Amino acid sequence: MTAAPAARARPRVAVTKAPRLVAESLRERILDGEFAPDALLPATEALVDEYGVSRPTVREALNVLEADGLVRLRRGPGGGAIVQAPDSVAITRSLESLLRFEGTTIEQLMEVRFVVDPLAARLAAERATAEDLERISASIERQREDAVRTSHEEWFTENLHFHWLIAAAAHNPVVRVLSESLHDIVLTGGLRVPVEEHERDRSIAEHEAVLRCIAARDADGAERRLREHLERSMRLRREYAR
To answer: Would you place residue 187 in the very low, low, confident or very high pLDDT band (cuts 50, 70, 90)?
Structure first.
């Protein structure tokens, strides 16, 4: 009978940064798969003994993990720290904060979008599911609605949602997170490419052309169409800036 592998020794922490260090150790254990999604972490008392810290230190470490989206804390009898699969919200928020703090311009954002968005379209043409195509098509239909076409805010929100749906259809988490961050900073940071109402019909037509390429599994065409669409947006931006 094969002997069970020895448990890894855990650091016994007794410094002022103890909560962060305990949180980092638990984060690594979660990401390494030691604790599966929906599993309970060891009880507070067990973690106190394991790491050699106080109960308040363990509670603060668990609060850090909850803020990072790796656990959810359930209070009361039978409660504890429940492992959950991380999402992109915290990453997106941090990147968005950094970009806004650095004073990122629309031109700098577009330089990155010229890489990310066409790549997303190419990958979407290769990987999009039927549900992905339906969601992208539904976004285009919303863009045609008078309430959206005639509203500055509604148009920009739906327009960026269309691009985000393509990034989601790429089924690449890095592309999706980058796309979310870039689009969120455009919405919240006031960095928007002006599009007059009469020009929105052309944008819708360009969106339809991108979708047709994705649906036809034409990766080269989807990438080219998306890049051409962004190039026209930048030309409009420069014209309005004169």
So the answer is: low
Ranges assigned E (strand) in the chain: 71-74, 80-83
Question: In 3D, which of 217, 219, 204, 215 has the Cα closest to residue 149?
Answer: 204
Q: How large is the angle between the packed helices 130-144 and 152-169, nearest 10 degrees?
A: 170
The residue type of 145 is E
> Per the structure block, which two tokens stand in for 61?
């470490």
| Contact criterion met (CB below 8 Å) for 151 and 207 | no
Q: Is the dihedral of CA 163, 166, 167, 173 positive or negative?
A: positive
In angstroms, the CA 19 to CA 33 distance is 21
Integer Cα distance of 119 and 113 in angstroms: 9
Q: What does DSSP say about strands 80-83 and 71-74: parallel, antiparallel, or unpaired? A: antiparallel
Q: Which of 154, 150, 158, 144 is nearest to 205 (CA)?
A: 144
Name the packing angle between helices 197-215 and 130-144 (round to 10°). Answer: 160
The DSSP element (H or E) to which 138 belongs, if any, is: helix 130-144
pLDDT per position as a tens digit, 133-142: 999 999 999 9
Q: Is the pTM of this model over 0.85?
A: no
